[in-house]
Write a structure and sequence with these properties.
Helix content is about 30%, strand content about 35%. It is of the alpha+beta class. It has a nine-stranded antiparallel sheet with strand order 1-2-3-4-9-8-7-6-5, covered by helices on one side. The longest helix is centred in the first third of the chain and has 21 residues. It starts with a helix and ends in a 7-residue tail after the last strand.
Length: about 190
């Protein structure tokens, strides 16, 4: 009887500990709220979150984003000079530095955060980003995970979030979070 009781308690303890560690924490309210603001601003080409103009090139203008994600080093909006595709894109630099382990952690953390965010869109039920987190391979200098917004809202049919881990050169890494519209090749 005593062995059965001890075995039962041990199994209960193991099950409880496993359940506590396998629960996925939700993103912080600030991350969720700001990601939702930026996502909703996509409907109007990010003008609602556009800040000051930072630079201009032949093919695009770059603006600061008035809404930033917690932990981002900087956030910008790209407006391209294209006659066929007038959509803008939003980008947050979540990490820039020389520590691969830190960059990898931030990449994975941001993938999990995006994958858990609920976005309330006007006139629709809450939408969520869904996708698979791609794991980096040691011989590749780039990896990205793409998350589609699970909604029936036609404005977001081609919209997606992409988290990238990029090796800029031998010892410089960058983690980017992009929110953009994917155009089919025949539409460009």
């Amino acid at each position: 009887m005593r062995k059965t009781l001890l075995l039962s308690l041990a199994l209960l303890f193991i099950t409880t500990v496993h359940a506590q560690f396998s629960i996925k924490p939700a993103p912080s309210p600030a991350f969720s709220e700001n990601l939702a603001k930026i996502t909703r601003a996509f409907r109007n080409n990010y003008y609602a979150v556009q800040g000051d103009k930072l630079s201009s090139q032949d093919d695009m203008d770059v603006y600061s984003s008035a809404v930033v994600l917690p932990g981002a080093q900087h956030c910008v909006i790209y407006r391209f000079h294209s006659k066929t595709d007038t959509t803008a894109s939003w980008q947050g630099i979540m990490y820039a530095g020389d520590n691969y382990k830190q960059a990898l952690k931030i990449y994975k953390d941001n993938c999990k955060l995006v994958n858990r965010c609920k976005i309330n869109l006007e006139g629709s039920a809450a939408a969520v980003f869904t996708g698979k987190i791609d794991q980096p391979e040691t011989d590749l200098r780039f990896v990205s995970s793409v998350f589609s917004l699970n909604t029936k809202d036609a404005a977001y049919e081609q919209f997606y979030a992409e988290v990238e881990l990029v090796n800029l050169n031998f010892d410089q890494w960058e983690v980017r979070l992009n929110l953009q519209n994917k155009k089919d090749d025949d539409e460009k």
